[in-house]
Amino acid sequence: MRKYLFGTGLLTAITGGLTLLRGMREDAPFTWRSALGWLSWAISVALVVGAFVDIRRAAQGKAIAPDSPIHGQEKALLKQRMRRERA
User: Fold this and answer.
1) What span, in angstroms and rounded, lies between the C-alpha atoms of 57 and 68?
2) pTM for the predicted model, two decimal places
3) Mapped to the 3 state alphabet, what secondary structure does 21-67 carry?
4) Per-residue pLDDT tens digits for 6-22
5) Contacts with 57 (C-beta within 8 Å, 6 or more apart), sequence order
6) 3-state secondary structure at position 64
7) CA distances (Å), origin 87, targets 57, 77, 81
8) 87: part of which helix (H) or strand (E)?
9) Which residues contact 64 (CB under 8 A, 6 or more apart)?
10) CA-to-CA dists, residue 31 to 23, 27, 40, 51, 78, angstroms
11) Residue 72: helix, strand or coil by DSSP?
12) CA 80 to CA 68: how far, in whole Å?
């Protein structure tokens, strides 16, 4: 759980969302640039969640999509998980 909560992707998405929220507080009108900022933030969050799902599935020994950044590392992640469970 710790590796998910303190992952750099999640921290980046949280700080990006906080920055967008701060920009909304300052009585600035909602423009197309604001909409693109929120869309970009939503895509970032979706990518972070997808990466977490891939890591979890790979650590459980399940197959993951070939376009995943961790594709090919499934055996190593499963081996790490097995070592942690034995200790």
Assistant:
1) 11
2) 0.72
3) HHHHHCCCCCCHHHHHHHHHHHHHHHHHHHHHHHHHHHHCCCCCCCC
4) 677 888 888 999 999 88
5) 63, 64
6) coil
7) 21, 16, 10
8) none
9) 54, 57, 58, 70, 71, 74
10) 12, 12, 14, 31, 46
11) coil
12) 19
As to burial, measured by CB atoms within 10 angstroms (0-12 exposed, 13-18 middle, 19+ buried), residue 16 is: middle
Q: Which two tokens mark 2? A: 């710790």
16: tokens are: 């990006």
Contact between 33 and 78 under an 8 Å Cβ cutoff? The reply is no
Phi, psi torsion values for 84, nearest 5 degrees: -65, -40
For the segment 41-74, what is each residue's pLDDT rounded down to a tens digit?
999 999 888 888 888 887 777 777 778 777 777 7
* Amino acid identity at 30: F
